[in-house]
Amino acid sequence: MARPNRTQLAGRLHAAAGEDVEVQAVKAHLAMVTDRYLASTGVQRMAEHLRMLRRLEGASVVTRLFHHPDLGSSDLVVVTRDVPGLFSLIAGTLAAHGVNIISAQIHTRADGIAIDTFQVNDPLGETVTSHASWTRLLEALRAVLTGEERVETLLERRRAAGRAATGAAGPPKISLDNQLSDVATVLEVKCPDRLGLLYLITRTLSALDLDIASARIATEIDQALDTFYVHDRQGRKIEGAETLARVRGALAEALVQPI
After folding, report:
1. For residue 242, what pLDDT is reported?
2. Which of 27, 122, 193, 201 is deepest in the core (most CB within 10 A)?
3. Do 144 and 45 belong to one domain?
């Protein structure tokens, strides 16, 4: 992958973001994001991220929705300060509100600001367009990310209302590889997709004190193929046969549980 030219991009991005965003903020943003972010994010979407970052100065979390009825999905963009288990908190809140994650792009700036985008729909594969539903979900997400609410409480309410998801349709295939990346262990999970799957995976990783550096989330028909680049809290790979077996076993156990 060719290294993006940040100097050339700065002018285009400032023009797209508008005069409300200072040039210095544009340059700072480009300096703090990864090459992967620059290669996978269009200028107009980066400009929206900059506008969201301005709003974050006076808020704990900033969200933005982009609906795509022709695709049967929506983009939920979440900008907030990174915390351990952030992916799990977001995924659990979505699952508690019956929203399915199709794919996700996870990015964290060098200053600890997370810019995460989730492609989502309902369990029937339709776009969630209800304003009231999104209002409830986004308020719950704000409460979870500020510590006012717990994901487990949200899921308990869902179960109490008789809306618990079914268990796994089959055993997962789990692989851990330390050769594919210089800086992280690559975890790959393949299994039948279902509501709350990503929450189960990311909650387990968080409980094991593992951080997700980046992720590729994909769904083909009814199969999830999710790849996570993970390391421990000190930024080290997961190494040692016993530790790797413990991670694999914890995930295998978690992924057969109902949500």
Report:
1. 96
2. 201
3. yes
